[in-house]
Amino acid sequence: xxxxxxxxxxxxxxxxxxxxxxxxxxxxxxxxxxxxxxxxxxxxxxxxxxxxxxxxxxxxxxxxxxxxxxxxxxxxxxxxxxxxxxxxxxxxxxxxxxxxxxxxxxxxxxxxxxxxxxxxxxxxxxxxxxxxxxxxxxxxxxxx
Length: 144
What we know:
By secondary structure, this protein is an all-alpha fold. It contains five helices and two strands, in the order H-H-H-H-E-E-H. It has helices spanning 3-9, 40-49, 53-90, 92-95, 104-140; strands at residues 98-99, 102-103. A two-stranded antiparallel sheet has the order 1-2. Helix 3 (53-90) packs antiparallel against helix 5 (104-140). The chain starts with a helix and ends with a helix.
């Protein structure tokens, strides 16, 4: 009697018994199919939170971008406002020009300087926020 006939005679359900000729099916394991538990954004945020070398490098890049922006706009203010006295020293006739009864140096340094500084400050805030948003987008960018 075979094993299937014995289990059927005993009242048990018949189980498939593999024959000795057919080898068991093989399961193929491929490393690329292993799913990762977190995405790139989670790993990057973790790098930032744990203050690892990668996170430190990312933050230093943001700080470098903000410093570069501040230095460029400071240079603009230095040339824009600091260059006026040089202009008046090099070309004294420009310093003697009057507009509506007021000397041009007084108008430029006393009146026009404030809107200039406000525009530069507004530009700095906009560009600094853009740098920060680019940093956040870099950290939260999904893995491709």
